[in-house]
Design brief:
CATH architecture of chain A: Roll
Structural class of chain A: alpha+beta
Strand content of chain B: 25-35%
Shape of chain B: globular
Number of domains of chain B: 1
Oligomer: heterodimer
Strand order of the largest sheet of chain A: 1-3-4-5-2
CATH topology of chain A: Thiol Ester Dehydrase, Chain A
Largest interface: A-B, 49 and 51 residues
CATH architecture of chain B: Roll
Largest sheet of chain B: 5 strands, antiparallel
Strand content of chain A: 35-45%
Shape of chain A: elongated
Distance between the termini of chain A: 13 Å
CATH topology of chain B: Thiol Ester Dehydrase, Chain A
Radius of gyration of chain A: 17 Å
CATH class of chain A: Alpha Beta
Helix content of chain A: 10-25%
Chain lengths: 140, 160
């Protein structure tokens, strides 16, 4: 399951569609599981009438979680040493998101093989919603 | 800031994985997870954020007897509340030092970080606040370091 350094090269990519037609219900589900009940994500009345946004929108952390699904499918569970993202645009109900990991480097650190990945998640209009990076332990 | 005890539980992991639409068996199937390299149910990489459930003072959860800023009879439960929204999440970074499994009990401690400001065309003055949270396991070993950056905007982010 785990990635092998011998079978990887810089520039290799792995991509997945991580959500299709994101529902408001999934935002409610994420609020309940994560404990972040900010009304901006689940309360259309508050968000449009008080906060001034066109609709509720996704928790950044939901988009990070969706991105992590692609990432763990690629490197395997328990293999990450670092995972970081910037939230570059909001994600809205109805969005369809694709995530891609690109191999930036394969290296040794204290006898452990590591892969450095660049991460990007984009919406159906090609707009980037998350940019990030990750490092994972890989097999020789 | 107070330390928060965060029991990592299999049912919570399953609900979190459901919420991100992740059907990986290591998040919900104890037998399959046991046979896998990780040896048991593990949390998804961004699960540490769910420590909010265990923070008694977490400000983004309604509490009995306290006014809540979301809608109820009116569009906000707090009258005269300015249109500021409590902020958005700008960045989140994790470093994983040791494995975490269902059954572990983490202790989270948040340390104050840097604050800085920037002007933006889409949302006016932006105020960034960094928070670093260390998650230690029941042996006192550092398991995860999280660094989050929140941003408060002067006005809603322009979608143009």
């Amino acid at each position: 399951m785990a990635l092998k350094a011998s079978a990887l090269k810089v520039g290799d990519t792995h991509s997945e569609r991580v959500v299709e037609n994101l529902s408001r219900t999934q935002l409610v589900q994420y609020a309940g599981a994560s404990g972040d009940y900010n009304p901006l994500h689940t309360d259309e009345v508050y968000t449009t009438q008080v906060a001034g946004y066109p609709s509720v929108f996704a928790h950044g952390m939901l988009t990070m979680g969706l991105t992590s699904k692609m990432l763990v499918n690629f490197v395997g569970p328990g293999r990450l040493t670092k995972f970081g993202v910037r939230f570059t645009n909001q994600v809205w109900p109805g969005d369809t998101l694709d995530s891609v990991a690109t191999v930036e480097a394969i290296r040794d650190e204290a006898g452990v093989k590591l892969v450095d990945l660049k991460l990007s998640t984009t919406n159906q209009d090609g707009k980037e919603v998350v940019s990030g990076s990750a490092t994972a332990r890989i097999d020789p | 800031m107070a330390k928060i005890t965060f029991p990592v539980e299999a049912s919570h992991i399953m609900m979190f994985a459901n919420a991100i639409g992740d059907t990986n068996p290591v998040y919900h199937d104890a037998a399959a997870a046991k046979e896998s390299e990780v040896g048991g149910i593990v949390p998804p990489p961004s699960f540490a954020q769910a420590v909010a459930q265990f923070d008694p003072d977490y400000f983004l959860r309604p509490k009995p007897g306290q006014k809540w800023f979301g809608s109820a009879k009116g569009p906000s439960g707090i009258e005269g509340k300015p249109t500021s929204t409590g902020g958005l999440h700008a960045e989140q970074h994790y470093e994983y030092h040791l494995p975490v499994h269902a059954g572990d009990v983490l202790t989270a401690e948040t340390l104050p970080g840097k604050t800085w400001e920037r002007e933006s065309k889409r949302a006016g003055k932006l105020t960034f606040r960094e928070r670093v949270t260390e998650y230690r396991n029941q042996k006192g070993e550092l398991a995860i370091t999280a660094r989050g950056v929140g941003v408060t905007t002067e006005r809603p982010v322009d979608q143009g």
